[in-house]
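FORM 7B: Structural annotation worksheet

SECTION A. Query
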Amino acid sequence: MKKTSLFLLLFGLVAAFMFTSCKDEDGEYKEINDWIGSKMNNYYLWTGKISSDMLDQDGHDNPKNYYNSLLYKTEDRWSYITDNYSALVADLQGTPVSMGYSPLFGQDPGTNNVFIIVAYVYENSPADKAGLERGDIITKINDAQLTTSNYQSLFYNETQKLGLAQFIPETNNINDTDETLTMTAEVINVNPVIHSEVITENEKIIGYIAISEFIDSTTFKTNVGDVLNEFLGAGVNELIVDLRYNRGGYVSSAVWLASALAPLAEVEKQSPFIEVEFNSKIQSEDEYYDFVSHGLNLNLEKVYFLTGQNTASASELVISGLQPFMDVITIGETTHGKYVGSTVFPTPDEKVNHNYAIMPIVLEYTNIDGASVKGGIEPLVAVFDDVRVAVPFGDQSDPLLNQALEMITGVVKSGVKSVDNYPAYHLILSNRQKLKMNLIVD
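SECTION B. Predicted structure
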């Protein structure tokens, strides 16, 4: 991405203009909306769908409404705008103000009631200190029953009293308990490695790593690199990468991980890894992300990925991108299907009394065989991840991990069965979770 990245940078510097005030004679938001329109007209992947009439505005429309009016909603489910750029940067770089647990929001069938299942908890976070664990179920926050109309505002409240519940498999019900936990959000430092270990069985040395997100490349490389170096030292010859809750992040971190897993010969040649397409105003020739030789490589011929409905964008890029180069085994559920990527554009003038940033879709990608993840990556082996009965990461009774270990070792665990029946609830995504399903061009 040498040429296009430089082009985007130079284009952005030329296109940016300085704001002198937030208001003028044409309307309160004219300058910021003009800036939004300029960025969308130049960079948006579907810029051809934006007419001159759509760009025209009198400055009175709220920037969020104006931005959303420009989106090509037939394809675009991901472009984003925020009036809190500082919080966005902290989130993407792995230093958010947070409780430190990842929610899976479920909706009861036939009702507006919502419950939260904890997918994972970051170590030393407020949630960890309060005793929250993977698989815990929450039905109330601050004594209010979670519903489709309030679950987002309640979950992102910075002080929370959680009302816990219990799943009863025999009746397929979630019942409230008297147990509560109280916590207050604080700045956390995200370690994207939420679990890692070496499993030795039947002459196989298996590395297992669960990665939560592709955050800022420096932090990502340090934390993930430490684990992969441990695997190398242990003589790992099989690898399981758990991406079932990984909604994505930075392209650079995804390429770095893929380059650590791919066959060494392809990495040393810096072979094209992913092909990308921008709009016609930007792209004049074929563009690729290449493998990066960074000194850490497991030189594998096969890798097992655990996937789910929340496996998205950068995670899908890694999986799809590696498929032409090695044996990629996917176990779990069909992935999200995020086949496009965004760039973050903050307002350019620090004196502006706005803190807006936009994240429009700017590119579409395929692997070098031309395969897209649009519609999701179907698993080679379908196994349902019922988090209502979740076990700790690394517990070999986890159906997805168990399936991978069985395929690697040939050993069938007695009493462990793959779950292939889907429950009578469905997962829903909050607006901020949709934001996290991003492939970010950096």
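SECTION C. Observations
Residues 273 and 317 are 10 Å apart (CA to CA). The chain has three domains: 2-79, 97-187, 193-440.

SECTION D. Sign-off
Analyst initials: ____
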